[in-house]
Specification:
Helices cover 45% and strands 17% of the residues. It is α/β, with parallel strands linked by helices and 283 residues long.
Length: 283
Amino acid sequence: MTIENVSDTARWVAIYRAMETERPDAIFRDPFARQLGGARGEAIVDSLRRGRAAAWAMITRTAVFDEIIASKVKGAGVDLVLNLAAGLDARPWRMTLPPSLRWVDVDLPGILNYKTDALRDVRPVCRYEPITADLTDAPTRQALFHQLGASATRVLVVTEGLLVYLTPEDVGALSTDLHAQTAFRWWLTDLGSPRLLKMMSRSWGKTLAQGNAPFRFGPAEGSAFFNAFGWREAEFRVSIDEARRLNREMTGMGFWRFVMRFYPKRIRNELARMSGILVLERE
């Protein structure tokens, strides 16, 4: 089983959410994940090198995104969550959210229509709207952002698992277009370093490249990459620290923590921010 396109990665990650959901001590529950990931998602996970062993990172990311989204909606008065490249994310159906909250999913027709069709008999917990669009088409993207920005006042943009597949130029263009809308106050995303990209590419690079979904974005300057586009870091949660907090560390992490104590400080600092969940806010 090979990944045929970038949308297949959504099926892959859905299986990780299903794996977590089926644990007796699950840190979140997504009752739709197994159905959405399907047999194809299972086959993709099983075809990847250490496919199931790597689940901890995506499970941690999902849990932390849940926490931050809930916090922003409750504490910052977010009136619109704009979920770009939404994939098979089922948060509008599975999270506890205010019924008045507006949630907009944007993604390519194939994957978004597949999700909404699969969940057609399930009522979302909030005001849900799917929009099919190709976010790499700049005029389409800009028109959509303008329309949504004019219809809300406190928007949280979410790009979970998206940026790593874009070029730095594409991320810069997206950053500019998001910042052009004054209602877009916060931007929640995941971010990796060049070291992380190399590690992931060694394991999965060939498989993803065959599906035209290679890993591309892992800026050496970290979150400072976004400063030139009007965004600044408001919060950064280190993935390995969050995994430890949530009791979802990868196997053998205790040994690596011990070994890292002997690394030079520069390397320790680099490793500490190798992967994380980033909240950006407007300058």
